[in-house]
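Readers of this paper often ask what the protein records in our data store actually look like. Such a record has a labelled line for the sequence and another for the backbone structure tokens. Nothing more is needed to write down the fold, since each code stands for a local backbone conformation. The remainder of this section carries one protein's record, kept here as part of the documentation.
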Amino acid sequence: MMRTALTMACIAAAVPVAGLANGSSRPPLPAWQTDAANCSWQWREGGGLGLWAETCDFNGSAWQVVWDEGRAAFVTHNDDTDMGIAVQAFALPYGAGMDALGQTLVAAGALDANAACAWQVTALRPAPATMAFHVLAPTDPAALAPTAEGEVPDPVCGPYGASTHGIRYFITDLRWPGLAVFVEEGQERPLFDPASITFLP
């Protein structure tokens, strides 16, 4: 049920919008690679988004980030195994802020309506002045701390919120109003370049 509701919310966002300011829909090839001997960059497109993603062969196992039409998201695959969402766009009502996205996540069952969470704007990396990064984080900073037994708690703010298991955030951009893009970087550098995420013309 949660996947269906979120897919519908994301399909609503999957409309081509304005491209890069310089008229190009494809940013430069990233200057880094996870493993130059076993990985290669591929340009991926889906749902009005484009990004540079790596295809890697590690010990005979193929890792890649691909567009999943059913989930309306880019997902990480290990051979035929879905390892989770990497990038996903959500629609925001005209003039609405991130609180509206929180309501979408609650309606989809991806966020407890009573969870003590709030949106925080954070500076994750250099970005255009029009762009902002948002994290859905617990209002109690200790909520993600290990328990007395040393166990790591489940994310208080759901699968799209702040986590001890890696970096998660949403991107908004004044050049592309009406959209918020979820990014799951994980614990290590992901198999895609977050800075290359582009809204296609």
The two ends are 32 Å apart (CA to CA). The longest strand covers residues 81-91.
